[in-house]
Amino acid sequence: MIQHANHGAMRVTLDIWRQSGPGAQGHFETHTVDGNEHMSFLELLDVLNEQLVREGKDPVAFDHDCREGICGSCALTLDGKPHGPRNRTTVCQIHMREYRDGAHIRVEPFRATAFPVVKDLAIDRSAFDRIQRAGGYISVNTGAAPDANAIPIKKDDADAAFDAAACIGCGACVAACPNAAAMLFTSAKVSQFALLPQGQPEREKRVIAMVDQMDAEGFGNCTNHYECEAACPKSISVTNIARMNREYMRAMLRV
Amino acid sequence: MAQDTRTRAEGGSSVLDSKVPSGPMAERWSKHKFDLKLVNPANRRKFDVLVVGTGLAGASAAATLAEMGYNVKAFCIHDSPRRAHSIAAQGGINAAKNYKNDGDSVHRLFYDTVKGGDYRSRESNVHRLAEVSVQIIDQCVAQGVPFAREYGGLLDNRSFGGAQVSRTFYARGQTGQQLLLGAYSALNRMIQSGRVAMYTRREMLDLVVVDGVARGIITRNLTTGAVERHSGHAVLLCTGGYGNVFYLSTNAKNSNVTAAWRAHKRGAYFANPCYTQIHPTCIPRSGDYQSKLTLMSESLRNDGRVWVPRKAKDSRPPADIPEAERYYYLEERYPSFGNLVPRDVASRNSKSVCDEGLGVGPSGEAVYLDFRDAIQRDGRAAVEARYSNLFEMYERITGDDPYVTPMRIYPAVHYTMGGLWVDYNLESTVPGLFVLGEANFSDHGANRLGASALMQGLADGYFVVPATIASHLAGRKLGAVTTDHPAFAAAEADSRQRLDALLAIDGSRTVDDFHRALGKVMWDKCGMARNEAGLKRALSEIRDLREAFWQDVKVIGDPNTINADLEKAGRLADFMEFAELKVRDALERDESCGGHFREEHQTEEGEAKRDDERFAHVAAWEYRGEGRPEARHEEPLVFEEVKLTTRSYK
């Protein structure tokens, strides 16, 4: 994996998804780009876009921002794999040394009915926001909080809540799932709050509202492929899905 | 700069009224809150507040104001409010809880922050920040933010640069993310309840001022290209800093100065634009294609030793360089603080050894951060337990394994202390325009301490503005203004004309090409070290570059769809204007302080030398129209609690 070449120039060919707008007919477009093994994959797209602009052609639209793997903006599928070839890594952190000179890479947006394409590689993930709005919060007005150490929380519970809270909302779990399910995403937030004492008062209401919204958005259901966990750049575990299912069942029996 | 562009407050009167309350420091915020006018809960729904930006400051303000009953419209540039750049903060958030019983207090946090800022911040603001810090932690825990805990179930703390107590709360290396998701959840709750209308993928293009009061904004819908008008009774800018004027920084790619700069051109003074924080431990650039820089947490300096070869252009692999030929320059120069000197000192020393030709790596602009001794002393497992995620991140980006080869690091632009000038109420010089978080000139003076940015963003949004906004809403008579007002039409026309002008140039150079050129001028001449000759050269280079930009930039495509090139061009056009002001401010501040290092003003040992006699003030710049030099105003800084001393880390 680790190479020490200082130069490492390389030429790659990209088959890139182009789509002028939502609902428009899309197609793959092929471009050859001269890069270098130290570049990130998004920097290779930058090179391509500058090349396109110089030729008077429309650059490829894609979402990105922090380029450090934490904002969750980037959402590309490379050769059929959401976020590309390296596990636990967002596509903005994929560097070209993962590929050989002469590589041919297929670049697509994350695909799911609930994530319509906005343009080229940019997609609409507002469904995720609507799931969070349905119940992904603890109702506490600013200023009304007790002292932070008033409620001790077991370290193991706090750590497990953190593991779930690490989700960056990128949508790779949906793109990887054969059913385009959003169970991993939704269960991560349900789990975080179910594990914490602060989350108890709204526990039942929350899971029902979030699952209902998830279903209303047109995401599929989980059939235990675990592709979501494999694609997740933050290692969110499928045990969260099991927990959400239990929480949902428990809530249905109580309300 | 010419004297005629300067106003100096004589006998305490200034065009800049800071509205700092009087009385004992520790009682000022309480007294001020009592003295402020209030808006009756039943009347709050009659006021529309526009919040631009949904990072820590914006999301917390929007949520809190909505909880109080105001009508809020919130705007963000991203596809979701959760993606604001606050999310990338790693280290932690300070609060004077004294949970460690190690002598921390509100006063100590206040004192450390004023000193860390090299005595260039407003004491009353900093004291308030330290006071509300404790409530922030309470609020975040109540929201379910999973801070690190000890086995007893209580919150854990760690220590951070510039402080001798443990007051930093953290959530692994993702504190910013967890705090932002907390604020995002509070915002979501208010969106769901219908009290916040959320506008995503919107960029603010202009501020609309009616009868001297901020009454609206012009935005561009980044998906459809539509230019839109929004009116309200107050506008809150929570739009972050200007670090990307350097092109390469640790800021996210979309971070920009446009909202602040547009407000500046509508009357908001810009304060201390020369202050920039350069973080010492970033991954060096590897080539011209580099699009951004990545920060490695400051915590690495606890165990890593910083060195360069003693011999210039030594091309041997680091492992082959014997101990006697390694220059541990921080340990030699600062025996008592060693590798843990503050950020500005560490950064400047890296630059100076590289300038002497001792730098390593292909570019010669890097120094080693070596864990060999820590691994030998504590074992690989112990080092792994502390830093494995950072080592993995480094390996991912560089392809080198830091367990075997020393890391190569170099300083990079990280945070900007300057910003729009605000009074104690966080209101700018445009009535009704409030500025929060990194976008204001803030509480950090000339240098920000680690783990204080998150604290300030949330203090402003959760606790300060929700109280102080009443001074405007209840204190002024605000007539009905709709988007049909001619001021909206005029501002919209300006925005459209700028977009059309950019598309019409059809030159030969790309936007990024110009941005890289601007970044190089800024980094070389207005970066870690500045001098008069270099700054003067920078002024003319920036003007030339700006002229070339407006003649030769090539912006492609359709303005009525996602057009990243057009967005970038508009932002760069503003950076090109802002850059000149930044350089002028650096030129005019003829002293060294914190992150502003003027080579003419250093001690014999090469440390920053302040000039309190002439420069213990905030410099706030007034835009006076196209082609006229901006006027420089001064707000004197009065130190009643903290004695001005020279920082020493020897």
What's the number of structural domains of chain A?
A: 2
Work out the strand percent of chain A: 5-15%
Distance from N terminus to C terminus of chain B (CA atoms, Å) equals: 36 Å
Regarding CATH, which class of the largest domain in chain A?
A: Mainly Alpha
Summed over residues and divided by their number, the pLDDT of chain A gives a mean of 95
Strand arrangement, major sheet of chain A: 2-1-5-3-4
Q: Please report the first level of CATH classification, the CATH class of the largest domain in chain B.
A: Alpha Beta
Oligomer: heterodimer
What letter string, H or E per element, gives the SSE order of chain A? EEHEEEEEHHHHHHH
- Number of E-type strands of chain A: 7
What is the strand content of chain B?
Answer: 5-15%
Q: What is the radius of gyration of chain B?
A: 24 Å
Task: Give a structural overview.
The complex is a heterodimer of chains A (255) and B (650). Chain A is of the alpha+beta class. Chain A folds into two domains: 9-119, Beta-grasp domain (Ubiquitin-like (UB roll), Roll); 126-143 and 150-254, Orthogonal Bundle (Fumarate Reductase Iron-sulfur Protein, Chain B, domain 2), CATH 1.10.1060. Helix content of chain A is 34%, strand content 14%. In chain A, a hairpin with an 8-residue loop joins strand 1 (9-18) and strand 2 (27-36). The N and C termini of chain A lie far apart (53 Å). By secondary structure, chain B is α+β, with helices and mostly antiparallel strands. Chain B has three domains: 21-277 and 415-473, FAD/NAD(P)-binding domain (3-Layer(bba) Sandwich); 279-414, Succinate dehydrogenase/fumarate reductase flavoprotein, catalytic domain (Flavocytochrome C3, Chain A, domain 1); 492-626, Methane Monooxygenase Hydroxylase, Chain G, domain 1 (Up-down Bundle), CATH 1.20.58.100. Chain B contains 17 helices and 21 strands. Chain B has helices spanning 28-35, 41-44, 56-68, 106-116, 123-142, 175-192, 258-265, 329-333, 343-355, 372-378, 380-398, 453-473, 486-505, 511-526, 532-552, 564-588, 612-615; strands at 6-7, 48-52, 71-75, 93-94, 158-159, 166-169, 196-199, 202-210, 213-221, 227-231, 234-237, 270-271, 277-282, 305-309, 326-327, 367-370, 407-415, 419-420, 433-435, 617-622, 631-636. Chain B has a five-stranded mixed β-sheet. In chain B, strands 7-3-2-11-19 form a five-stranded parallel β-sheet. Chain B is globular and about 75 Å long. The two termini of chain B are 36 Å apart. Chains A and B meet through helix 1, helix 2 and helix 3 of A and helix 3, helix 5, helix 6, helix 11 and helix 12 of B.
